[in-house]
Amino acid sequence: EAGVTQSPTHLIKTRGQQATLRCSPISGHTSVYWYQQALGLGLQFLLWYDEGEERNRGNFPPRFSGRQFPNYSSELNVNALELEDSALYLCASSLSGYEQYFGPGTRLTVT
Amino acid sequence: KQEVTQIPAALSVPEGENLVLNCSFTDSAIYNLQWFRQDPGKGLTSLLLIQSSQREQTSGRLNASLDKSSGRSTLYIAASQPGDSATYLCAVRPLYSGGGADGLTFGKGTHLIIQP
After folding, report:
1. Cβ separation of B42 and A104 shorter than 8 Å?
2. Mean pLDDT over all residues of chain B?
3. Residue B49, C-beta contacts closer than 8 angstroms, at least 6 positions apart
4. What is the mean pLDDT of each run of 10 residues along chain A (111 residues)?
5. For residue range B16-44, what is the model confidence (pLDDT) as tens digits?
6. Are B30 and B47 in contact (CB under 8 A)?
7. What local confidence, expressed as pLDDT, does residue A98 receive?
8. For residue A60, what is the DSSP state?
9. B49:A99 CB<8 A
10. Which residue stretches of A15-106 are H helix?
11. A interface toward B at CB cutoff 8 Å?
């Protein structure tokens, strides 16, 4: 069974640009979570999507947004990139809030 | 606001030793607690999940316990091997939704090195 997949693996953007990150959950999982792991800050919860709806978000500004498609895959958009957005972005999927399974992450570098 | 603390921050032991990693959390209203390992620059691998009603879970050489009332969990690794070297993360899921509380709250991890 395929695990959670994320693309791209690496992304380099310039300050002020927009970044789009993608996640495909494990087949059958309806919930997708996004987390940010910035150096020195640890893993922080960003967004939770379930059945196509945004269910909750962490303490991040509105320029972090996303959506979940009918096939449960998800996209994270970061607008007006700032240097401190450089981080590893991890996506996880689960069934109804049970165990979360994580993807390999997208490394975003903002220059 | 839930806070998760992991002690020690780093640990280096010789191969073959049994070891214990500690995790504490401030709010006992949790739905479950999960232990993960993370290899450098990689995603997270789920090791064990303990529901709030459970006291422990075992998988191979790993055993995790949960004492919800005291806000503590431990991960016991038996007969450590060099391949166990990684960062171990503890995370809790809140019992109640709302206010950004549905995602997992992570500790900063214990960086474990097993010396051959």
Report:
1. yes
2. 92
3. A98, A99, B32, B33, B34, B35, B57
4. 92 98 96 93 91 91 96 97 96 84 96 97
5. 999 999 999 999 989 899 999 999 888 89
6. no
7. 75
8. -
9. yes
10. none
11. 4, 6, 33, 35, 42-48, 55-59, 88, 90, 92, 97-105, 107
Tokens of A91: 């996506």
**Please, what is the end-to-end C-alpha distance for chain A in angstroms?**
37
For residues A55 and B30, what is the distance between their CA atoms, to the nearest angstrom?
A: 18
Q: CA-nearest residue of chain B to A58?
A: B100
Rounded CA separation A82/B15 (Å): 43
Residue in the structure block whose two tokens are 């709010």: B27
Interface test with chain A among B51, B102, B106, by most A beta carbons within 10 Å: B102
Chain B closest CA to A49's CA: distance in Å? 10
* Alpha-carbon gap: A52 to the closest alpha carbon of chain B (Å): 16
pLDDT at B99: 46
d(CA B33, CA B44): 15
- What is the C-alpha end-to-end distance of chain B, expressed in Å? 41
Chosen from B23, B57, B104 to mutate, greatest number of chain A CBs within 10 A: B104
